[in-house]
Amino acid sequence: MRHALLRTLPGRAIVIGLAIKLAVFFLRTLAGQMPASVGVFDTAGSIAVASGGGYFLVRGMAFVRRRLLWRVRRKLIISYIFVGFVPAILIIAFFLLGGVPPRPERRRLAERHRPSTPPGPGRTSNRPPACPAG
């Protein structure tokens, strides 16, 4: 805080403006009625305090906005990971672990279900006939 008030131009403007306003206040309380030129100094002090305060207000709001947006950005990145990246990894893992059997296994499964001899006359497959109902 001390660095901001004494080593920056807006900080110095605030300190000098407050000093001028304090001096004008003491002169008015001690002397009573003051000439119009003292009012000019009071106004200049007010402008210096207001401009320095406005500068620090804008800087403070920019700092808060950056911090707030960083939090929102971080949350958005995490949500993008969970909504997009994790499901894609899960789909790939499911296919790799069991969704698609390896090629030799598929060949064996296809041979197991393929008839070895052609079907007999009047039959469309080598499966035994269904048991008659009754």
Task: Walk me through this protein's architecture.
Helix 2 (9-31) runs antiparallel to helix 3 (36-99). This protein has helices spanning 2-6, 9-31, 36-99, 103-113. It has one domain (2-111). It is an all-alpha fold. The protein is built from 4 helices and no strands. The radius of gyration is 43 Å and the shape is rod-shaped. The protein starts with a helix and ends in a 21-residue tail after the last helix.
Main traits of this protein?
4 helices; 134 residues; mainly alpha
Helices and strands in order, then pairings?
Blueprint (H helix, E strand, L loop, with lengths): L1 H5 L2 H23 L4 H64 L3 H11 L21
Query: Would you tell me the overall average pLDDT?
Result: 78
Helix percentage range: over 70%
Distance between the termini: 99 Å
Q: Nearest-angstrom radius of gyration? A: 43 Å
Helical stretch count?
4
> Which stretches are low in confidence, meaning pLDDT under 50 for 5 or more residues running?
none
Count of individual beta strands:
0
Percent of residues in beta strands? under 5%
Structural class label: mainly alpha
Task: Note the main sheet.
Answer: none
